[in-house]
Amino acid sequence: MSGRLHILDGGLQTSLQGRPMTGHRHIALPGAGPADPVTLALANWCVGNAWDMAGLEITLSAASFHFDCAATVAICGAAISADIDGTPVDTGRSHRIPAGAALRIHGARTGVRSYLAVAGGFAIAETLGGTSTYLAGGIGGAALRAGDHLALAGAAGPLDRNVPPAYRQVMTDEIGLHCVPGPEHGLLSKTDSDALFGQPFTIANRANRIGCALAGPELRARPGGIASAAVFPGTLQAPPSGPPFLLGIDAQTTGGYPRIAQVVRADRHSMGQLRPGMRLRLLRTDPGKARELLRRKLLLWRALIPDLRL
Question: What percent of the chain has pLDDT over 90?
């Protein structure tokens, strides 16, 4: 009989995220899924799971869990330390947790999100074809709190798998994201366009899975509104007042603000680690170069995780 993982402390925000609920944007439902799917894929690789198997996404603060059965786990992402019953353990590798033990994942110092994968995954039902939680709509579940529990599927998993150095992600306080100009980029003046791609921004305090505000150069020639149009994770909008807003994994599916830039697909996973106070540069590119960036990144990552998709 499989055991359960009990939430002792869910921290600021912990949720189940795995395969997105794709194919429903026409009814205004985002796919949800991990904000940083590459890091979840690394944690799953450590325990022998499919790359998109659902794991726990832990945001900023510490979180702790109790296992009533033995399990193989891995932690990857922003947290650089953890402990099992008070004994320090490394992140980025698999660990065997004995029955009755408690796992504590420490808070992030840089970056935002950490992922906990358990060998065999969780015994959860699909929702709209996915295994993720859309927190803003309460679809697929909710944020996990103390007293909640999740049933484990019960696979043993590899006993010793360590993320190779070449695939260990370094979290820093500065990041560049490649972007292509958005459909309404032409509504910006040349001065504003040069500032958008030439000067740094700072991630403002308004930041979550829906998106984040950018503080930095003022876009003085604000364009007017547009008819509601499709938006996606990585769309940079220019509201009529206030800073530009970068849409995240849980953002709405349509919007009426000018879309002045779009983060390329190859870099979207990095948005999941954008932290308030982080310095951000938007690196202008074109669709051809964006496709090449994606090809090269997939070539690198699929040498470790063959089925990975971005």
Answer: 89
